Amino acid sequence: MKLLIVEDDTSLREIICRALRSEGYIVESAATFADAQDKTAAYDYDCIMLDIMLPDGNGLRLLEHIKSLNKSNRIIIISAKDSIDDKVEGLDLGADDYLAKPFYMAELSARIKSVLRRGNAAVSNIMKAGNISLDVHGRTADINGNTIPLLKKEFDILLYFLQRPNHIVDKAVLAESVWGDHVDMADNFSFVYAQVKNLRKKLTEAGATVNIKAVYGFGYKLTETDETAS
Prior knowledge:
By secondary structure, the chain is of the alpha/beta class. The chain folds into 2 domains: about 1-120, 3-Layer(aba) Sandwich (Rossmann fold), CATH 3.40.50.2300; about 125-225, Arc Repressor Mutant, subunit A. The protein has helices at about 10-20, 35-40, 60-70, 85-90, 105-120, 150-160, 170-180, 190-205; strands spanning about 1-5, 25-30, 45-50, 55, 55-60, 75-80, 95-100, 125-130, 130-135, 140-145, 145-150, 170, 210-215, 220-225. Strand 10 and strand 11 form a beta hairpin.
């Protein structure tokens, strides 16, 4: 699961990010309206924690912008402005929950799990492509009923591609989506190449009818086996 924390308070932002990463989430952050606007336009998030009071804009206007993109991300407003008017406006604009500051991390974690459950209620827990079956919640991958032993990042990469069949995925976008904000500290994308190579090998050895094809100069694409270069 990939989360975005939109919060201008550096200390609080770091505390939230650290706590949620320890729970296994992929976490990115934004300190300004402009940064959050760019990230929500370019990437998909399962849940966004949104502060109302940002240094360069109103978080409620950012909420309107996010909803105009017609994406399926869930949104929890986190704000020191615990007024009924703000709550009503935020929920009317499409927020899934509202949490007033200060709050305990355990409560934020519970709220995130709650809105994610609601968001996934109408969505199948099983994703399929060719003869691959992915259990999103159980985090297991099967081919013809046999489980493939995937590492955490290998599973995340495969899930990312199954959500985007036949789409060319830029290696930089893949890296940021799976590894999060800290990927920009890397000198190159060798870690992406290595993980994708290992995943492709496991899929081939298990007899998958789909694979991840390298598209020269662009990135990768999930394809049927007969389209995949050897």
